[in-house]
Design goal:
It is a single chain. By secondary structure, this protein is of the alpha+beta class. It has one domain: Jelly Rolls (Sandwich). It has two helices and ten strands, in the order H-H-E-E-E-E-E-E-E-E-E-E. A four-stranded antiparallel sheet has the order 1-10-3-8, covered by helices on one side. Strands 2-9-4-5 form a four-stranded antiparallel sheet, with no helix packed on it. Strands 6-7 form a two-stranded antiparallel ribbon. Strand 4 and strand 5 form a beta hairpin.
C-alpha cells in the first residue's frame, strides 16, 4: 500500500512538473519583441528565437546565424517582465570570442535590447541564459538594417 501511495505521489509530481514546463507561450513574447523592434528606426524583422527553458531544465539556449559585415543588427528579448529581467544573451564569433553580453555585471542590469555591427561576415552564436529567475520562458527577435 505504501509503495502504491509513493508511486502515485511520484507520478502526480512528475506529471505536474512536465505540464508546467509545457505552458511556455512563446508567441506572446515574440509579439512583444516585434513591437519593440518596430520602435527602432529602420530595422527589419529577420528571425525569431524561442526561449523555452522547460521549467528550469535548460538554463542556456544556443542559436547560430550568419551575419554580414556592413549590416547593423539588433536583438530584442522579452519575457513576463517589462524589462526582460532574468534573460541575458552573449554574442560570440565562430572562434568563441565573446563580442558582447546583454547583462551588465557592474550595474547588475539586464538589457532587453542590444545592437551590434559585425566586422566580418560569418557565423555568430547567440547564447541565451536564464539568470536568477524562476521565469524560464521568453523569446528574442533579430532585426537588421543596411548601413
Amino acid at each position: 500500500m505504501r509503495r502504491l501511495l509513493w508511486g502515485i505521489v511520484f507520478f502526480v509530481g512528475f506529471y505536474s512538473q512536465v505540464a508546467f514546463a509545457q505552458k511556455c507561450n512563446i508567441k506572446q513574447f515574440k509579439d512583444k519583441c516585434i513591437t519593440s523592434l518596430q520602435r527602432q528606426r529602420g530595422y527589419t524583422f529577420l528571425k525569431s528565437y524561442p526561449l523555452d527553458g522547460q521549467g528550469g531544465v535548460k538554463k542556456k539556449i544556443k542559436y547560430s546565424y550568419i551575419l554580414s559585415r556592413g549590416t547593423a543588427y539588433i536583438l530584442t528579448m522579452a519575457n513576463r517582465r517589462a524589462d526582460a529581467k532574468g534573460i541575458s544573451v552573449t554574442i560570440s564569433t565562430s572562434s568563441g570570442k565573446t563580442l558582447l553580453n546583454s547583462y551588465d555585471e557592474n550595474k547588475k542590469k539586464f538589457h532587453s535590447t542590444v545592437g551590434f555591427n559585425p566586422k566580418v561576415t560569418g557565423v555568430y552564436y547567440f547564447t541565451f541564459e536564464f539568470q536568477n529567475t524562476r521565469n524560464y520562458c521568453g523569446a528574442s527577435v533579430l532585426g537588421f538594417k543596411r548601413r
